[in-house]
Design goal:
The structure is a homodimer. In chain A, 35% of the residues lie in helices and 25% in strands. By secondary structure, chain A is an alpha+beta fold. Chain A folds into 2 domains: 186 residues, Ribosomal Protein S5, domain 2, CATH 3.30.230.10; 129 residues, Alpha-Beta Plaits (2-Layer Sandwich). In chain A, strands 2, 3, 4, 5, 6, 7 and 13 form a 7-stranded mixed sheet that branches. In chain A, a hairpin with a 6-residue loop joins strand 10 and strand 11. In chain A, helix 2 runs antiparallel to helix 3 and helix 9 packs antiparallel against helix 10. The longest helix of chain A is centred in the last third of the chain and has 20 residues. The two termini of chain A are 36 Å apart.
């Protein structure tokens, strides 16, 4: 069964209260970007989570889930909560924050669901603090949410969620985030309804790789960065090749090879696994092609009888968006 | 003893002959560029080789050495000869070419001496053929010269020599060369008078590397490409880090760690081993800094009692230059 992304729910809680409420939309993100394992990521326009935050009289962090995902409400175990606690650690006063979350980005889908919660929470809270913290600080706080989600502090979803566009994490210790410009790009996402745990997807990777494969990989990432900055679509397409991670991880994703081949045949520049999967993304120069790619993906998963969501969207150059 | 680069010899042979003579200057090049092992390279303004080429009545390739390096004159064993033979293979007619070479770039110094001969020869010959071949063809021919020199067809010196500027070899099979723009950069080169054979420098590399080190390396090459294209000197400096090759190869180069540290202290953005060494290059934002770096290098090798050449030059955006 094919399901379309629909905003089933959208309201502003606290509208009746006197306190200031900050409401935001926090976007999904695609990490790795084929040849940029652990260092590249980009934000998309759809889907996004909705979040609302306000000060409360109870010091610490209170989580309110507005959706049906039944995520933990203990702040230490909640990705938004852990990110906010890291932020409050650097605020001298005893502050209380209440964050209400309506997730539209399905946890575990591989398009940065945890990053959207963690990054959205700290960006919204920072507005309550009159933007006291830098974007780089916010990435640092939000990585604590990623640690709750996957055990590892990584920033390749967090950074594009906060900065928007395509970001490079040149280094994580010390944190060095580089914003990369990009020509207009349409993104087709497909989320097959299977579970791939990030820990499993990471566990099957080899700790050692052949130098010759690594060289091919860094030739490609250099080509991809050049293609993005120079607006060279053909170069972007040629550089979207992953000889190290995809061959291992793609075996966890049904229909991956067909999706890739038929997307290219439909005109996509290229693409691959989003994050650690199971979602797959493809980049196209125009919307019509991106929709042809969606149709190809749909056809493959219909044939396999696999439930799936698709999105045709664009690169989101804004990142987290304030809606009040 | 410190020796300065001087053009000891410069003349145009065949000036008295009736036939057309093409004369060129073929520049030295710096391959690898720290984090871009096997894929990045750039051309410099100094030093360069001088070459003169003309048609002769004897089919095949005739090599005339004008310098004192006593390089092979059998065309199959000469890098310029092998490159020209590859070119003649694709020319239907039985053609004779005579190339006279005055090398100023010392063979084995690690700044693309063989590439200068191979690339210069085919660029000059192509002019005799009224530019019948594309730059990409010329790279392909010239790689046959590299094979004679080091046993491997590589293009990270050849490509910048022919295209000028900074080039990325995204892929060698099929050949995919990307020209990268760069902000103004001064280059300090030092050539310690020791021998490092390319084959040895390659032999000590491990065939397997840690994935985490490879990730750090491709974060850096992505940062370097972004820094070059965006003209971000600080990012270029931060990205000039090599966690894979330099730690192994630098042990072959006396004083390497001191040169690197004191060059940074003198204001260099960064740098490292040129090609497979023994030359070392450093990049600076301005000429005064590049000269301070030269003084630091000089001081270190004076103290070690090691003969060396230094050059303060710039990135050469033209590549092989016609001088008639």
């Amino acid at each position: 069964m094919r399901t379309q992304f629909i905003h089933q729910f959208s309201y502003t809680p606290y509208a009746e209260t006197g306190g200031r409420v900050v409401s935001i939309q926090s976007p999904a993100t695609v990490a790795n970007m084929v040849c940029g394992f652990d260092v590249l990521g980009f934000a998309v326009t759809d889907p996004y989570d909705e979040m609302h935050i306000r000060f409360t009289d109870t010091p610490g962090v209170t989580i309110v889930n507005l959706d049906a995902y039944d995520l933990p409400t203990q702040p230490e175990q909640n990705v938004a909560g852990a990110a906010l606690l890291a932020m409050l650690d650097e605020v001298a006063e005893p502050i209380g924050l209440e964050v209400s979350i309506f997730k539209h980005i399905k946890p575990g889908s591989g398009v940065g669901s945890s990053a959207a919660s963690a990054a959205g929470a700290v960006v919204a809270a920072n507005r309550l603090f009159n933007d006291r913290f830098s974007k780089s600080d916010l990435v640092r706080f939000a990585m604590n949410g990623e640690k709750v989600a996957s055990g590892v502090k990584h920033a390749d979803n967090i950074a594009p969620c906060i900065y928007g566009g395509v970001t490079l994490i040149r280094s994580i210790f010390p944190l060095d985030i580089v914003e990369l410009s990009a020509p207009p790009l349409y993104v087709t996402l497909v989320h097959p309804q299977i579970e791939v745990r990030t820990a499993d997807a990471r566990g099957i990777l080899k700790q050692q790789v052949l130098l010759k494969d690594a060289i091919r990989q860094w030739g490609n990432i250099a080509g991809l960065v050049a293609g993005l900055l120079q607006g060279d679509y053909a170069l972007i397409g040629r550089s979207l090749e992953d000889v190290l991670i995809e061959p291992v991880r793609s075996i966890l994703i049904p229909g991956f090879a067909d999706i890739k081949q038929q997307s290219r045949e439909a005109g996509a520049l290229g693409g691959g696994i989003s994050g650690s999967g199971p979602s797959i993304f493809m980049l196209s120069k125009d919307e019509a092609t991106a929709k042809d790619v969606e149709a190809a993906m749909h056809g493959i998963y219909e044939k396999l009888g696999l439930d799936h969501h698709t999105y045709v969207t664009t690169i989101n150059h804004q990142g987290v968006k304030f809606i009040n």
